[in-house]
Write a structure and sequence with these properties.
Helix content: 40-55%
Strand content: 15-25%
Radius of gyration: 36 Å
Distance between the termini: 115 Å
Order of helices and strands: HHEEEEEEE
Strand order of the largest sheet: 6-5-4-1-7
Shape: elongated
Number of strands: 7
Structural class: alpha+beta
């Protein structure tokens, strides 16, 4: 075999060995990434289980130390409700959005037409928490007026 052919064969073998080493390196890298992701997932799961066990132990401790004063409980829960539970009904004065939170950046549940009656549940600043049909949401107080129902 000629010297030039031997040199070509040597170069081809060297390139082949280099290619094989690169492929093996890629495979080993992928395996390491997979193992580290699996290990991280196991650590997260272990941490979550530890937190759950802590909460369960804490609740168990609370339950074991809980002492009920049954006489006081009977007094409190058997007293007649003396509060005057009046329902305040509002009527919308303009077309208004019923929102999930008391701000204009949140989701609109539905739009109420002028004259729609709603039940007032509470107030937060310039917002009124109301119930419309089975939905609870918020409207701006300035767009509703109190009405009296006989």
């Amino acid at each position: 075999m000629k010297a030039s052919h031997r040199r070509d064969v040597f170069i081809a073998r060297a390139v082949f060995v280099l290619f094989c080493l690169i492929v093996i390196g890629i495979i080993v890298g992928l395996i390491c990434v997979g193992v580290s992701k699996k290990k991280a997932a196991q650590e997260t799961q272990t941490e979550t289980e530890t937190q759950k066990e802590f909460v369960m132990d804490f609740n168990k401790d609370l339950d074991s130390e809980l002492v009920l004063d049954t006489e006081y409980a009977e007094e409190v829960y058997n007293e007649p409700d003396t509060t005057d539970a009046t329902t305040v009904t509002l009527k919308t004065t303009q077309r208004v959005n019923l929102r999930s939170q008391p701000n204009t950046d949140c989701e609109v549940i539905c739009t109420l037409d002028v004259g729609t009656t709603v039940t007032l549940l509470g107030e937060e600043g310039e917002w009124a928490q109301v119930q419309y049909n089975d939905q609870v949401g918020y409207i701006k107080s300035e767009f509703a007026a109190e009405i009296e129902i006989d």
